[in-house]
Specification:
About 55% of the residues lie in helices and about 0% in strands. It is built from two helices and no strands.
């Protein structure tokens, strides 16, 4: 059985939402599906980076 998904409120800038809507439409996903895809992809890449870093190297700070 699939794991139950947790719902939560997301506050987002209107311009960002418009861009997400366009991007999701281009990739035939819902906005929710696009956000979930992007988060999963970012987490996968982060985990891959962390596993390849030497133990004495500090983690990179996120770009702002």
């Amino acid at each position: 059985m699939a794991a139950e998904k947790k719902a939560f409120v997301l506050r987002i800038q209107p311009e960002t939402l418009k861009e997400l809507e366009r991007w999701a439409q281009e990739e035939f996903r819902s906005v929710n599906g696009q956000i979930e895809y992007l988060l999963n992809d970012a987490l996968r890449k982060r985990k891959k980076r962390q596993n390849s870093m030497p133990d004495d190297e500090p983690p990179l700070l996120p770009e702002t």
